[in-house]
UniProtKB/TrEMBL annotation, chain B:
Homology family: Belongs to the binding-protein-dependent transport system permease family. FecCD subfamily.
GO molecular function: transmembrane transporter activity
Sequence intervals crossing the membrane: 39-60, 110-127, 163-184, 196-219, 239-259, 286-313, 325-343, 355-374
UniProt topology in membrane: Multi-pass membrane protein
Coiled-coil features, chain-numbered ranges: none
Record flagged with keyword Transmembrane helix: yes
Protein's organism: Phytoactinopolyspora alkaliphila
Domain of life: Bacteria
Protein's name in the database: Iron chelate uptake ABC transporter family permease subunit
Classification via InterPro entries: ABC_BtuC-like, ABC_transptr_permease_BtuC
Transit peptide in keyword set: no
Keywords noted in UniProt: Cell membrane, Membrane, Transmembrane, Transmembrane helix, Transport
Any single Gene Ontology cellular-component annotation: plasma membrane
Location of the protein in the cell: Cell membrane
Length: 285, 381
């Protein structure tokens, strides 16, 4: 009986140190990550922790190193030094194929000239699980259809990719990423070029997926609404990190983004709600 | 027992399994059916290829019947017991001279066209994927011209006139031209298709000019025919022996590419997408592109620089069966062979007894197709 109960609840009650340790190791941890090109430092000694099962937003003005950091985390660029751990294991030690089973990437707007179907695209997510000549199995197809249903695109399976809208394409990319069965989702400004309804629905789908997520986001209000944790970059360094209401202060917005803003409360979600002021207009105090 | 069942059949409401899901039939089909479809299409294409060879060898100045061809083939392959006229083609068994025309001239030429067409088509398919350039083709990118120059330099320098030496020179020339085009065609690490084509045209023109110069001034002042061969290609010199290296390299390269067909699919959305799907992008790209240069080199060594096959065939195949490399690669190979076989048959017979250079015919078909692809695909500048 006891054994069964333990299996169900995880760590034995009382073994607090074990649990804390396990909790601490879970999620994405970045240690002292640096990357430079031709002598210019792009990111410099990045340290951060994206908690397990939560959405961590990466904020920062253009050129602050967001995309570079994401690329270094996903091993699309090789960092000069530093380490990236996911749920306790060092990502640099994994074979690329094994990495692709644990970490999936959705880019800003990855397109193609080829006449592929939506299902073809989603099945690409099974690439790291199949050997060279194996054809797609029933299981692959089941996972692909499940992922399409998860992003509300089930009836689009046989549609041609080039007939989709921008928002639909991003949802298909998300389905492809989910089909990789990853522990970590890395999203590089996934809502760029999307209208507000598609942006909101995409992030809601990401939230519903419940995976550890590390997402660069441009829109600060979207970040405030959907992220559990925020990290702010400026000139390649982390300048703030924490819960949205701790990070998104008028002082930080002035300091990092060079905008005057009021921070209120969203009436429905209770999340921070930013109101920006046009430059040059003085607010009467 | 009631007799009501026939009525039930006629009742429209009883008609089961609605046809409303027609749109999703293809994607709901079980995975096994895709394998059957793939194998079926390839078998049909191979049958078309074999049939084309048997018919194409009958066409030419000496009128030869399918029956004669069949007799010669079964004779030479040691299958004389098959010579019973089962399909009732009639006709006479061929004289020894005609048998020689069939086996020593028509067949090597037909198989030369098949090997060269197959190789150029599959090289085009690989290049289009790995450079993300729908206009990629070994000829348009200057690689065939580089191979011609390499081959001519080896011959002129006396490094070897044997097929192996010429093939090696052609491979070296192809590889150097390819590296130059990729270097000039990229800007801060990304290849832009139009820039790449311009680089290819420039390198191709340069190599062509140097080839002409070397042949006409250094080697043999009367060798305009040689220049014609190297610059626009011909299959007139095909012999059984000259096809050996090309055939072996074609088979080995094709196996290598097929082995990576799934990884090639992962390039659909570009290099980063492929890498994040677990593909070792640099290793795959360089291995497969070097194989492209190698195959282009050995093909040019036997046929000169024939253009547009590598551009046309992969597009036609994708149009027919979609972009999955597991089907596009084998089908481009087989249909590339069929295509060049018929083009060469037209080239050698249309204006008998004069022969058109086969590259002239592929260009006449290829240039309109090039313009069509350019307009349709809205190639990224």
């Amino acid at each position: 009986m006891i054994t069964r109960a333990v299996r169900h609840t995880g760590p034995v009650p009382g073994a607090a140190s074990d649990r804390d340790d396990g909790h601490d190791r879970a999620g994405l941890k970045v240690h002292e990550l640096s990357w430079s090109i031709k002598g210019t430092v792009i990111i410099d000694g990045i340290v951060l922790h994206a908690p397990h099962g939560k959405i961590t937003g990466l904020l920062g003005p253009n050129g602050s190193g967001k995309t570079t950091l994401l690329r270094a985390v996903a091993r699309l660029a090789r960092a000069d030094r530093g380490a990236v751990h996911l749920d306790g294991s060092d990502l640099a030690r994994l074979r690329r194929r094994d990495l692709a089973r644990r970490l999936a990437v959705v880019e800003q707007h990855a397109g193609t000239d080829l006449d592929v179907s939506v299902l073809d695209v989603v099945l690409l997510g099974r690439t790291p699980y199949r050997s060279a000549l194996q054809s797609d199995s029933e299981q692959d197809r089941r996972l692909a259809f499940e992922a399409l249903a998860q992003v509300n695109m089930a009836e689009f399976a046989s549609r041609r990719w080039n007939t989709l809208s921008g928002g639909e394409k991003q949802r298909v990319h998300l389905a492809r990423a989910l089909t990789q069965r990853p522990a970590l989702l890395v999203l590089d400004e996934p809502t760029n070029h999307l209208d507000i309804a598609h942006a909101l629905s995409l992030l809601a789908l990401v939230q519903r997926a419940g995976l550890t997520t590390f997402a660069a986001l441009h829109d600060l209000n979207l970040a405030a609404m959907y992220c559990d944790h925020l990290v702010v970059l400026r000139e390649g360094r982390v300048v703030a990190g924490g819960a949205p209401h701790d990070v998104l202060t008028p002082e930080l917005l002035m300091d990092v983004f060079d905008v005057r803003a009021d921070v209120g409360r969203h009436p429905e979600t209770g999340r921070p709600l930013l109101t920006f002021h046009p430059p040059g207009v003085v607010v009467p105090s | 027992m009631t007799v009501g069942s026939p009525d039930a059949v006629l009742d429209p409401a009883a008609k089961p399994v609605g046809t409303s899901s027609i749109g999703s039939v293809a994607s709901d089909a079980p995975a096994g059916r895709h394998v059957v479809r793939t194998v079926g299409i390839i078998v049909a294409a191979v049958a078309l290829l074999v049939g084309s060879v048997l018919v194409a060898v009958t066409i030419g100045q000496a009128d030869i019947s399918v029956r004669e061809v069949w007799t010669v083939v079964s004779d030479r392959l040691g299958l004389s017991f098959l010579q019973v006229d089962v399909i009732g083609l009639g006709g006479q068994p061929p004289s020894p001279i005609r048998a020689d025309v069939i086996w020593e001239m028509r067949f090597p030429r037909a198989l030369g066209a098949v090997v060269v067409g197959a190789g150029l088509a599959v090289v085009g398919a690989i290049m289009q994927t790995l450079t993300r350039n729908p206009m990629a083709d070994p000829y348009l990118l200057g690689i065939s011209s580089g191979a011609s120059l390499g081959a001519v330099l080896v011959i002129v320098a006396g490094l070897g006139s044997g097929l192996f030496g010429v093939s090696a020179g052609a491979f070296a020339g192809a590889l150097i031209a390819f590296v130059l085009v990729l270097t000039i065609g990229q800007r801060s690490g990304t290849l832009t298709p139009v820039r790449m084509i311009l680089a290819g045209v420039a390198i191709g023109q340069l190599c062509g000019a140097v080839t002409s110069f070397v042949i006409l001034w250094v080697a043999d002042p009367h060798a305009t025919q040689d220049a014609q061969f190297w610059l626009s290609g011909s299959l007139a010199a095909s012999r059984w022996s000259s096809m050996r290296i090309a055939a072996v390299v074609l088979v080995v390269a094709l196996l290598l590419w097929l082995w990576n067909a799934r990884a090639l699919n992962a390039f659909t959305f570009g290099d980063d997408a492929a890498a994040s799907l677990g593909v070792d992008v640099n290793r795959i790209r360089w291995t497969l592109l070097i194989a492209c240069a190698l195959l282009t080199g050995v093909l040019v060594a036997v046929s000169g620089a024939i253009g547009f096959v590598g551009l046309l065939l992969p597009h036609a195949v994708r149009f027919l069966v979609g972009p999955d490399h597991r089907l596009v690669l084998p089908l481009s190979t087989v249909l590339g062979g069929v295509f060049l076989l018929w083009v060469d048959t037209v080239a050698r017979t249309a204006f008998e007894p004069r022969e058109l250079p086969v590259g002239v015919v592929t260009a006449i078909i290829g240039v309109p197709a090039f313009i069509w692809i350019l307009r349709k695909r809205q190639v990224r500048a």
